[in-house]
Amino acid sequence: MANVWGDLDLLLDSPSSLTVTSTARGTIKEKAGFKAAEDVVALRKAIEGIGTTENTLVDVLTGRSNAQRQLICKAYQEGHLSVLGNNLVPNITVNDHLSCTLCIPACYTHTQGPGTTEATLTEIFASRSNKQIKALSDAYLAETGRSMTHDLKSEVSGDYATTLLILAEGKRDESTNVDTAKAKADAKALYEAGEKKWGTDESKFIDILCHRSVPQLRQTLVEYKALSNKTLQESIEREMSGNLEDLLVAIVKCVKSVPAYLAERLFKSTKGVGTTESILTRIMVGRSEMDMLDIRAEFKKLFGCSLYSTIKVFADNLDRKLCHHR
Ligand SMILES: [Ca+2]
Ligand SMILES: [Ca+2]
């Protein structure tokens, strides 16, 4: 992995999904002959354990457009209380799958272990454009009646919180012109705030990485390597620790390639424990209409196997576990 993230050769010429808004690289289009009611019946059967569970969920939820999923979600919720009653386990599973298009971080916190809230928040705020963050913030307000930044403040603390809150404002510079002199100056400032200094001036890293545009930061990454003979990611890893290190590294990775960053998250989620399903679902469903083709390609490049086969193995194992519990 280090090699992949350390290679800056083609960086300045590659497209950035933080600025792409088309759906041309998505894998999901509107399904022809779509009927929400039919999908709801299929989902209910799957959730009640008639037939294979996870495969039906994945088929239905990744084979419909976002607008279609919203209709399924609505149809499902209108009928689901009478059918499922107070059966908590299916409800959690269903809510995890169906509400993931909103990706409201707080919804997940109570079902996860310690540390996973931060990991989820890091992924969400490092990988999204201003427009996506604005949409998330609006959805959060509509769903909970509270401001997202207000709730974030109560979830997290320290330099990590400072960084997250800047990102949550969704005010990253989105201009596309690159100022090379400024990139050189930023690279020097970062070098002096980290490697050259006894201790670390974290605020310098936070300021530059949260405010500059993606093209500007790419130039800065190149200048930083020329100046220090290290990648900025390596310096962040040496200088910092914990949630702040994870978040700043995630930003650097997303500046390089959001699809590659998400491919890595997906890979780790299929190998890890605990929150794997919500990571899988959030990325698979959240990116399906945007850049899933790129994520697949990056996955293959990074790990030498297809995303499909990796998830298939994971889903089969999950099926076995679910059957075992019944
Ligand atoms: Ca230092
Ligand atoms: Ca470290």
From TrEMBL:
Keywords: Annexin, Calcium, Calcium/phospholipid-binding, Repeat. GO terms for molecular function: calcium ion binding; calcium-dependent phospholipid binding; phosphatidylserine binding. Belongs to the annexin family. A pair of annexin repeats may form one binding site for calcium and phospholipid. PANTHER family: ANNEXIN, ANNEXIN A3. It comes from the Eukaryota. The gene is anxa3b. This is Annexin. It holds the Pfam family Annexin. One of its GO terms (cellular component) is cytoplasm.
